[in-house]
Amino acid sequence: MFARILNFYGISWQYEPKLFELEWDKNGKVKLAFAPDFYLPEQDLFIELTTLRPQLASFKNKKIRLMTELYPEIRVKLMKRRDIRDLMVKYGLVEEAQSIRGTASQGGMNE
């Protein structure tokens, strides 16, 4: 759905174009990496989407934090499920938005 909105508005995007290394073991082998969902080249912005329940999103938040610490020149925006639902509703995708479960905010959607 996010890609459909970007396409509709003619916004250039790439899907998971880059993998960022975040943690390494004592031998230098990558233990943790992060590939944000979308890259918007015209905005020089990576977008990570999450529809995980908040209590399960801590791992993704850790990756965003490490990303910001290790690559301060890289812009990353985390869009949580409420952000995604609100965006979908704003652009007329109400039925599709209802499939993203979460806290009640739009049209009776609930956890």
Fold topology:
Layout: H1 2-8, E1 14-15, E2 20-24, E3 30-34, E4 38-40, E5 45-49, H2 58-70, E6 76-79, H3 81-90, H4 94-98
Parallel strand pairs: 5-6
Antiparallel strand pairs: 1-4, 2-3, 4-5
Description:
This protein has 111 residues and is α+β, with helices and mostly antiparallel strands. The protein has one domain: 3-Layer(aba) Sandwich (Endonuclease, Chain A), CATH 3.40.960. Helix content is 32%, strand content 22%. It is built from 4 helices and 6 strands. The longest helix has 13 residues, at 58-70. The radius of gyration is 16 Å and the shape is globular. The chain starts with a helix and ends in a 13-residue tail after the last helix.
Question: Which labels suit this protein?
Answer:
two-stranded antiparallel ribbon; 111 residues; 22% strand; 4 helices; globular; 4-stranded mixed beta sheet; alpha+beta; Endonuclease, Chain A
Q: Which architecture does the CATH hierarchy give at level 2?
A: 3-Layer(aba) Sandwich
Say how many strands there are: 6
Q: Please indicate the percent range of residues in DSSP E strands (runs of 2 or more).
A: 15-25%
Average pLDDT reading: 79
Oligomer: single chain
The largest sheet is: 4 strands, mixed
Structural class call reads: alpha+beta
CATH class: Alpha Beta
Strand order of the largest sheet: 1-4-5-6
Distinct helical segment count: 4
Short description:
The chain is of the alpha+beta class. The protein has helices at residues 2-8, 58-70, 81-90, 94-98, and strands at residues 14-15, 20-24, 30-34, 38-40, 45-49, 76-79.
